[in-house]
Amino acid sequence: MLEKFLNFILRGLMGLCTIFVVNHFVITDFPLCDVGMNLFTFLTSGLLGIPGVCALYAINFYVLL
Fold it and tell me: What pLDDT, on a 0 to 100 scale, did the predictor assign at position 11?
């Protein structure tokens, strides 16, 4: 049980780090495409991992269309 909890926390933190890097270094020319770092994004990246982070950016891009 503790291993699953630590795995969830680590995936969530790595997801937030990925969002930070993408927001600040990859899409600097498009500030409207930034994904916020909050509890929802932490939970999404913790549950789904990197595909969850990609889904957050896909949803954000879809909303901008």
Answer: 96
